[in-house]
Give the backbone structure.
Amino acid sequence: MAKEIAVGKRAKISEAQQHTLLAVLIASLFLGVAISLISYFIKQISFNTKIIMEEEKQIASYSEVIKNIGVCKKPNGSVYSSEELKNCNPDGIEISEVPDSLRSNIIKDLASNSALNSVPKESSSNCINPSTNKNFTYNELIKAYNETTTTEDRLAASQRIRSCSALRIIPDALPAFQNEEALLASLNKLFIASDWEPESISPSGEAPTTSVTPGVNAMSVRLSIQGGSDVTMTVLNSIERSIREFNIERASIEWSNDNALDLNAQATAYYMDEASIIESSKTFNLESKK
């Protein structure tokens, strides 16, 4: 009898151990799944937080650039909303609405610079004030801009400021791209102003020998002048007074018995690198621990 009771107790203990082991295994399984899910969600939350922070950083930087340039009115908050960017019209805002911006400073300060405005401008019908029959002054250009009532009129007035004020000196002095035809046309105007007409004018076809500042490129042109010394000096003085930079690298002068002068020169003119916007991307790795 005692033996049967012992056997029964042993069987119950063994069964209890099996149930306990099974419960521990099930609990371990659930714990492992829970730990894996928690780790996964932590990684996802960390990754998404990193992406959101980077997006906010880029949006803030983009908004700051827009504000500094003066393309749009200032945003209601610290950054531009999608609706504000959608409704942004650079040609439909007043200069007073973008104070202390690059756009405002250029039009108010650079366009009114007396030294730059003193450089003779080529008169055109668009730059002539019909009331005075003279070139528009800076104040007249700004007044016409401020009195516009439509986007089209404001755009036309803005273009007139760029083409008829001191602002046109900048692209004339240092063009934004290589244009040999425009260079030769500029030289030809200088020759005409000097009452001298060259037999021919063309690019030299040679590479410039002068060193160029980063962002500035050079192109060569060959110059040949045949005439009296007074004519030659007039032409050279006109080139020297030009707002465009010409660097005469080498020249040869020959005199004849009849006081004629033959000048052959190799010169270099300059232009800026073409502006370009490079789109960059940044990749985030979900498994990265950085």
